[in-house]
Every structure is written in structure tokens, then in C-alpha cells.
Design goal:
Elements (H helix, E strand, L loop, with lengths): L1 H40 L4 H20 L21 E3 L17 H12 L2 E3 L18 E2 L32 H12 L3 H18 L7 E6 L16 E6 L2 H12 L13 H18 L4 E6 L6 E6 L8 E7 L3 H15 L1 H16 L12 H15 L17 H7 L24 H15 L6 E2 L17 E3 L5 E3 L2 E4 L2 E5 L6 H19 L4 H4 L25
Parallel strand pairs: 2-3, 5-8, 9-12
Antiparallel strand pairs: 1-2, 4-5, 6-7, 7-8, 10-11, 12-13
Helix pairs in contact: 6-7, 8-9, 9-10, 9-12, 12-13
Length: 557
């Protein structure tokens, strides 16, 4: 007992000493703090101390009048997206900390045991009760009904409301032949249009002369400019060609864009890059000065070009034009049209009608994989050569096609040497009594029924039903179901190794054949030309509708 008493006394003494030491340590710390404050403020002058006191008082006053910010309660966490029942914990009640739940193997009991430790939970899926027992939710458990599946959203519509919808042409004449004649008179190139195109060419030449002083500019009008059509901006009826020698073009562009790249190994100038650079230079001049408005570029086509809107004559709206540099397609097209119409005047009328039909039905927008307007002119000429069933061929084969581009650019007149292989007996070079409307109907029937697109080629140079030439590459189209299909083989008579159908895709090829079948059906039923030229619109989700009263007019003129 004595030893325990002495030990307790010793412990009490040690506790007293430690308490006294801690009290002394607190006093010493306070003294050190006061000493540090004095050492910090004693070297200061009275003005400095006054500034410190004023600043501290101002800060306290600012904090006093500062409005308090009420913190929003923290929202509960979102349920997990894992598979199975999603649990969310609620506030823990006081009864849950003391209540005891009997153990069971059921899922509800397991949740109840967890609930007494962590509070009530919520399940996003209904729990399964043991077999033979009703489902009862334990206290604090909230069972939410499963989320019902949402119906799939409808795909966005491809149709939009146009500010200026283009409608099919209306005619005063009665009958398909009379309507075709009336339309030809409307869309035939006019002298006023030629003057307007010549003015645009002179304007372009004047604006690009600071960059290309030696350039020659030529304009081509393929139809009447006063007639608004569907896809008039996407497929302009005017071509403006800037002609300049390649060597001079390379020298004039080298100072602005640096040395022009050359092809590897050959040392030849890359003419395609030169064309693109020259087109960009001309476009910069025309757009920056406010002369023209830029619409779109088509550098992926066979010949690079841009689409501009040039000012129209007087108060008329702008005229969409194709601007290209050293392009030969507009010159070749003008040469074929001139020589074909010289042999048979109905050739020009048929080409105008075919191109108008292809344009209104969305078949000649080459940027979307369709045939260019030049290819449709070749289709019309080839039909006049081999497609007639009741008459002799109206046009002879074109064996030699030679053109002087420099002569065309200087004189604005296409020059072409065109002759037949042999003088075939019975070939008629004068116009017959067949109307243009009847020719168009037979043109549609020829390519929809009698021409084999898989094994035959369109060649105005040979003018016969035959397989593609060995130098003409055949273009194969890959469908969505991994099958292949042969695209139309259309030979360029000025370049026999160029297939104008190489730009087609699976969608454009399907649209191509569908439109021929539609036109053949309407022509067989003696429908009006208004129904045939109804502007094409992308089909709705329910499927394409060919009735002319169900089409939508959503293309600007």
C-alpha cells in the first residue's frame, strides 16, 4: 500500500510538473508572439502605422457590409449506370441505427441489413421476392419503376422550304410535240444573252489584267440566260475560259506563289496545279474588287473551276458562271454543237432539251457524281447516229476531231474538222419530218430499253454499237452491298482514253437508271412535258415518289 501510495504521489507530481510546463510554454509562446509583433512594427514610422490601421479598419468594415452567400445544398449523386439494380442512398433515420432486422437470404433482407448501417436506399429496378412469398419493401427502401424505352426518333428530313421555289415550266400549247417546240424557243441561246456573256468576258479580262496582262477571255452561253431553272447555280449555263500559255503562266505565278512544283522524274510542269493557282489568283481579283460573288469551287472535277455570280445586264439578277483557266471542255462542247447543228438543225434542239431535262431532274451535277452536261450532249449525238429505228442515221461518225484552241480563243468561233469514214449510201443530212418531241421520246426509249450499258460504250467517233475500246478504261462502281456494277462508258471524242462516266457513284448510277425509267414511263403514257420536267427533290424516308403532284419545289433558280 505504501509503495502504491508513493507511486500515485509521484505520478501526481509529474502531472503537476507537466501541467506547469505546458502553462509556461504557452506563456513563452505568447511572449515570443508579442516580441515578434513589436520587432515588426517598431522600425515603422508613425505614418506607416496609421496606414496599416486605416487599411485594417477599412477591410473589417468592407467584410461587415458584404452580403452573405447562401450555399445551395449539395444534390444527391446520380445513380450508377452499371447493369443490375441501381441503388441510391437516402438520409439516415435515427431509428435505423437501433432497429435490428432478422437475417434472411432474400434480396430485400440483404438490403435491409445494409440499410440499418447506411440508411434507406432506392432501387431503380423491382426486387424479386422469394418463391411463394409476396414482395414487400423493407422500411426506408424506395422502389422506382423501370424506365420505359423511348421510341426511336425520326430521321431528319432532307427537304427544306425554299425562298424562291422553281416550278416546272407551264406551256400554252397542247400536246407533247407542241410543248417541246415552245420550250425550245424559250431556252434557245439569244443574241441578248451572247452580248451579256461577251460583256462578262470583257469585265473579267479587265479585272485580271494586273495579274495576267496577256490573258485572253472567252465566254460561252449554252442556253437562254433569262430562263430560271433548277440547279442554276450548281450547274451554270455560262462558261468563262481564261486562256494563257503554260510557260507564261508559270513565270507570272512564280513570283507570287514561289516556284511551281514539278512532277517527280519527268521535269514537266504540273498543269493541274498551275490551273488551280491561276484560278485562285483570278478569283481573288474578281471577289476582292466586288465584281463577282463567290459560290463554290470544283477542283476535284476533271478540269478545275470555280462558280461565280457575275453582274447581270441592267437591273437583272446575277448570272452564275463557270470560271476556268485553259479548259478545253467548253470549247469542245461548242464545236460539237456547231458542227452537229450544221448537219442536222434538230441536233441542237435535241441537245438543249436533253440537257434541260437532265438539269431539272438532278442528273448533271458532276460534283455529286453525275454526268457533266458535256456528256449529255454526247449522248444526244450518239443517239442521232445509231439510235434511230425508223430513219437512216441523222449524223455521220466523227472520225477526226481536230481543234485549234488558240483560234477559238482569238476568234470566239469553234473550229473543227469533222468528216465521215466512208460515204454510206442513204445517209440523210437534211432535216426530216420527225419532230423534236418525238426524237426526245425515242431518245429516252433508246437508253432505257435498247442500249446495253454493261457491254456497250457511247462513242461518237465510231458511231456504232460496240464494246468499249481497249484504250478506254471501264469504271466499276461499288454498291453498298459490296457488289459491283459497270458505270456508263462515254468516250470523249477529243481524248479517246478519257471516260466521262468515271465520276459516277453508286447513288448517282441508281438515280441515273431510275430517271430514264421514269421518263420512259411518262412518255409511254403521253404525259405532258410539265410533268416530265418537274424539278427533282431528294426522296423522302418512305421512298421515292415519281408522281409529279407529289414532288417538292425546293431548289432556287
Amino acid at each position: 500500500l505504501r509503495y502504491r501510495a508513493m507511486s500515485m504521489a509521484k505520478c501526481n507530481g509529474l502531472e503537476c510538473l507537466s501541467t506547469a510546463w505546458e502553462a509556461g510554454a504557452q506563456d513563452r509562446n505568447l511572449g515570443f508572439l508579442v516580441l515578434a509583433v513589436l520587432c515588426a512594427f517598431l522600425p515603422l514610422e508613425a505614418t506607416h502605422l496609421a496606414s496599416v490601421l486605416i487599411g485594417a479598419a477599412g477591410y473589417l468594415l468592407f467584410q461587415t457590409f458584404q452580403p452573405g452567400v447562401s450555399r445551395a445544398e449539395v444534390s444527391e449523386k446520380q445513380p450508377s449506370k452499371l447493369s443490375g439494380p441501381t441503388l441510391r442512398r437516402g438520409p439516415r433515420p435515427a431509428a435505423a441505427r437501433t432497429a435490428a432486422v432478422p437475417a434472411s437470404r432474400s434480396g430485400a433482407a440483404v438490403l435491409a441489413r445494409g440499410q440499418q448501417c447506411r440508411g434507406p436506399v432506392q432501387a431503380s429496378l423491382p426486387l424479386q421476392a422469394p418463391r411463394g412469398l409476396p414482395l414487400q419493401a423493407p422500411p426506408g427502401l424506395i422502389i422506382r419503376s423501370p424506365r420505359l424505352p423511348q421510341p426511336p426518333r425520326a430521321p431528319p428530313s432532307n427537304h427544306s422550304v425554299s425562298v424562291r421555289p422553281v416550278e416546272a415550266p407551264k406551256f400554252g400549247a397542247v400536246g407533247f410535240d407542241a410543248e417541246a417546240k415552245e420550250l425550245i424557243n424559250r431556252i434557245m441561246p439569244s443574241p441578248e444573252g451572247d452580248v451579256a456573256v461577251a460583256n462578262i468576258a470583257a469585265l473579267v479580262k479587265r479585272m485580271i489584267s494586273p495579274v495576267f496582262p496577256d490573258a485572253e477571255v472567252t465566254g460561252f452561253a449554252h442556253s437562254n440566260l433569262s430562263q430560271g431553272t433548277a440547279f442554276s447555280v450548281a450547274v451554270p449555263e455560262v462558261d468563262i475560259v481564261v486562256a494563257i500559255s503554260w510557260s507564261l503562266l508559270s513565270r507570272q505565278l512564280s513570283g507570287r506563289w514561289g516556284q511551281v512544283n514539278k512532277q517527280a522524274g519527268g521535269g514537266q510542269l504540273d498543269t493541274r496545279k498551275l490551273q488551280k493557282a491561276a484560278i485562285r489568283a483570278c478569283t481573288d481579283r474578281l471577289v476582292s474588287t466586288g465584281t463577282c460573288k463567290f459560290r463554290r469551287s470544283a477542283f476535284r472535277d476533271g478540269e478545275p473551276k470555280v462558280i461565280l455570280v457575275a453582274p447581270g445586264p441592267g437591273d437583272r439578277q446575277g448570272i452564275p458562271v463557270n470560271l476556268s483557266v485553259n479548259a478545253s471542255t467548253p470549247l469542245h462542247s461548242a464545236a460539237l454543237v456547231t458542227e452537229s447543228s450544221r448537219i442536222d438543225p434538230r441536233a441542237l434542239e435535241l441537245m438543249l432539251l436533253v440537257r434541260r431535262w437532265a438539269k431539272d431532274r438532278g442528273l448533271c451535277h458532276s460534283a455529286k457524281g453525275h454526268l457533266p452536261p458535256y456528256a449529255w450532249s454526247l449522248l444526244a449525238i450518239f443517239y442521232l447516229q445509231v439510235g434511230s429505228t425508223n430513219e437512216h442515221p441523222r449524223l455521220p461518225p466523227l472520225t477526226e476531231l481536230k481543234t485549234s484552241l488558240r483560234s477559238m480563243w482569238r476568234n470566239c468561233q469553234p473550229a473543227i474538222n469533222m468528216k465521215a469514214t466512208t460515204a454510206q449510201p442513204g445517209i440523210e443530212t437534211e432535216a426530216t419530218s420527225t419532230s423534236v418531241g418525238a426524237l426526245f421520246k425515242d431518245f429516252v426509249a433508246f437508253y432505257a430499253q435498247r442500249f446495253d450499258w454493261d457491254s456497250e460504250a457511247v462513242s461518237v467517233r465510231l458511231a456504232r454499237h460496240a464494246a468499249p475500246d481497249v484504250c478506254l478504261p471501264v469504271h466499276m462502281v461499288l454498291n453498298t452491298d459490296r457488289t459491283t456494277q459497270v458505270a456508263p462508258s462515254i468516250e470523249d471524242p477529243f481524248n479517246p482514253s478519257c471516260n466521262l462516266g468515271a465520276c459516277m457513284t453508286a447513288m448517282s448510277l441508281e438515280h441515273f437508271h431510275q430517271e430514264f425509267q421514269r421518263a420512259h414511263k411518262l412518255c409511254s403514257q403521253d404525259e405532258s412535258l410539265t410533268c416530265l420536267l418537274e424539278p427533282w427533290a431528294p426522296p423522302k424516308a418512305s421512298g421515292p415518289e415519281y408522281a409529279c403532284d407529289e414532288q417538292e419545289h425546293d431548289f432556287e433558280g
